[in-house]
Prior knowledge:
It is globular, with a radius of gyration of 14 Å. It has helices at 17-30, 34-43, 45-48, 51-69. The mean pLDDT is 89. 67% of the residues lie in helices and 0% in strands. It has one domain (17-69).
Amino acid sequence: MPKRFRLTRRLPIAMTEDGYRRLRRFAQEAGLDEGEALSFLFENFDSVTNHENLSHRLRLFNSDLEARKR
């Protein structure tokens, strides 16, 4: 029997404009709303990410983060 899909958490988040556009595009392509798309991504995080690529991208993002905040 499939798990019942309930959105039980609501949280205010801050996203970059590029990140939000990409989330909206992914959600639209998948036929989901943004909350469902985020739930899918985080529930399946290990299978939808490549650990080596994730580590590299995270280092790049963090190295650029302070400059982007200004």
